[in-house]
Amino acid sequence: xxxxxxxxxxxxxxxxxxxxxxxxxxxxxxxxxxxxxxxxxxxxxxxxxxxxxxxxxxxxxxxxxxxxxxxxxxxxxxxxxxxxxxxxxxxxxxxxxxxxxxxxxxxxxxxxxxxxxxxxxxxxxxxxxxxxxxxxxxxxxxxxxxxxxxxxxxxxxxxxxxxxxxxxxxxxxxxxxxxxxxxxxxxxxxxxxxxxxxxxxxxxxxxxxxxxxxxxxxxxxxxxxxxxxxxxxxxxxxxxxxxxxxxxx
Amino acid sequence: xxxxxxxxxxxxxxxxxxxxxxxxxxxxxxxxxxxxxxxxxxxxxxxxxxxxxxxxxxxxxxxxxxxxxxxxxxxxxxxxxxxxxxxxxxxxxxxxxxxxxxxxxxxxxxxxxxxxxxxxxxxxxxxxxxxxxxxxxxxxxxxxxxxxxxxxxxxxxxxxxxxxxxxxxxxxxxxxxxxxxxxxxxxxxxxxxxxxxxxxxxxxxxxxxxxxxxxxxxxxxxxxxxxxxxxxxxxxxxxxxxxxxxxxxxxxxxxxxxxxxxxxxxxxxxxxxxxxxxxxxxxxxxxxxxxxxxxxxxxxxxxxxxxxx
Lengths: 249, 309
Ligand SMILES: Cc1cc2nc3c(=O)[nH]c(=O)nc-3n(C[C@H](O)[C@H](O)[C@H](O)COP(=O)(O)OP(=O)(O)OC[C@H]3O[C@@H](n4cnc5c(N)ncnc54)[C@H](O)[C@@H]3O)c2cc1C
Ligand SMILES: Nc1ncnc2c1ncn2[C@@H]1O[C@H](COP(=O)(O)O)[C@@H](O)[C@H]1O
What we know:
The complex is a heterodimer of chains A (249) and B (309).
Chain A lengths: L1 E5 L2 E3 L21 E3 L1 H15 L5 E8 L3 H11 L3 E6 L6 H15 L3 E5 L10 H9 L2 E12 L2 E8 L2 E8 L2 E5 L11 H7 L4 E5 L11 E7 L13 H10 L5
Helix pairs in contact in A: 2-5, 3-4
Chain B lengths: L1 E5 L10 H10 L5 E7 L3 H8 L4 E8 L8 H11 L3 E7 L2 H13 L5 E4 L1 E4 L2 E6 L4 E7 L4 E5 L15 E3 L10 E7 L12 E5 L6 H15 L2 E4 L1 H5 L20 E5 L5 H4 L7 E6 L6 H4 L2 E4 L2 H11 L1
Parallel strand pairs in B: 1-2, 1-4, 2-3, 3-10, 4-9, 5-9, 12-13, 12-14, 14-15, 15-16
Antiparallel strand pairs in B: 6-7, 7-8
Helix pairs in contact in B: 3-4, 5-9
């Protein structure tokens, strides 16, 4: 079973991103960039499938600027066998990403595609579902548990009401939720080894996919702030204020 | 043309978030039809028909739609789509699972999690865990939108609209429902509750979480939320997680107990009307946001609060 994992380079989860003064976007110069946390989880799951003897090969793919090579090197250090960089500058929307991933999936003959449920920069939560649609395959989003046996993926999903388990024949598309696993850290020897693993560099145009955005960002602004910071000295004072000042109880 | 709103339901009850998403759908300025896709869900269609401003309800009642899996439901919607130029759903896990699949089949880029309808093709949506609000204009002729329901008031009741039955699409058979683990609770639903009490890592164990948080929730008639740390540690179930990647809530009152206030948590609750924080660390970031901060040990203060209410 060949597994493809889509990994995105994003501003690190610990960075407090700021809106640019001119309202054209957010400030990303000199901001620490990392692999999207949900992609780390997807990759970890793929590597575990390989370690369990269920996957034969794990391929990591990223669409983005030349710098996304760093993200792919991390994926290789975590255990991916090889990587594909699809270089595209500027904003590449989930629909275009899904079209590129479809092309790779079909070219490589992939049985299972793992993605994150959400990229923590655009918070779109779309790409996996779109890829499954374009491939005409089943989808299991927000996965917290994945079992592969006899060509069927059995997936437990985190849904609003609790948990749901579904079964999909392979090939299929699965997106990871937070509690699927705890991703490993790449060890120093593995980081060294990753330098010599194969990393193919391609261009979006090589796949014949139109990546022109469908959406125009007209403005980016700060969210409405809220005036907090007031303290109370005791439970009695808190209850009093909730009753007479805030009037919420 | 017309807007198609997808109803959120469990085959028995129409979820309250549909009425909020309806307000966003109506803001597009066109007639709105509601699609109820499920099995044995006629009562849901009746409830949807009585929402204000609904022109028509489409009822697709078929065993293949019972679990509302994305593949058969998206096939159904795509079959109906030529009559519509906007498809809208609440940004619930069902809506988020379904709508991007519909969008891709229609070759459309979805606009996720809208909080404002600026014009029929221009929307505001939060990005970067709510650290920025983007205004985006879409060039797609069909708009596919998921709605952050806390940002829109619920539509009221109206005159009963007609209900048409529509056939399900041929089941693509790409996935099969196996089982559900759904917690039934007498408490209000987290996403719709007027009061939410939320516990964090400081609770220390499931036993202590239950011992502290349940009586407080009972006293206030509140829903219970949790931080990711509390869910990861098994103190609370996954569907209680509030935040960037959990549920977004905007109750009248949110009481955060032993939660530090990480940006990912704030993303899910900072639109609450009144925020109370109880934390032993006077420098916890949650205090910067709280209307009423109380410094101290939750193990003494939370029982004291429950008692005082
Ligand atoms: C991709 C990603 C997505 C995420 N999504 C979410 C999300 O959706 N929701 C979410 O909540 N988090 C999310 N997180 C995690 C988030 O970054 C924080 O790690 C998490 O919110 C911390 O939870 P906490 O506040 O309970 O724990 P901590 O940060 O450990 O805070 C515990 C607090 O309890 C206080 N405390 C300790 N003992 C006591 C006591 N006896 N009495 C009173 N106070 C006490 C401490 O002072 C501290 O402030 C996400 C992270 C990532 C990377
Ligand atoms: N540019 C990209 N390169 C690689 N993978 C991506 C890219 N954009 C999105 N993805 C994948 O799709 C998931 C969901 O992203 P999104 O739909 O943007 O929230 C991510 O976790 C990745 O697995």
